[in-house]
Design goal:
The chain has 78 residues and is an all-alpha fold. It has a domain of 53 residues. The chain has 3 helices and no strands. The chain is elongated, with a radius of gyration of 21 Å.
């Protein structure tokens, strides 16, 4: 495990404390989870861009054409 020391504006720190408390986790856990979520979002975006380069639009549309055109069941609609 590594230690990271950062400076935050008081208002941001207070919000962080409040949200961690509401979530029932420590500040360390909350920050680690927030960083993990950001890393996941950025790496997923990069993965999808690279994955899209391997395919082509015609194949993509052919796969989508196989999806049935039906209305969602009552429990799935909003």
């Amino acid at each position: 495990m590594s230690t990271l020391s950062i400076q935050l504006p008081d208002s941001l720190y207070k919000s962080l404390q409040k949200l961690a408390e509401q979530d029932g986790v420590s500040l360390d856990q909350f920050v680690a989870l927030a960083i993990a979520e950001k890393i996941s979002a950025l790496t997923t975006e990069d993965y999808l861009k690279k994955r899209a380069q391997r395919g082509d639009r015609a194949t993509y549309e052919a796969v989508l054409a196989k999806v049935a055109d039906v209305s969602p069941v009552a429990d799935d609609s909003v």
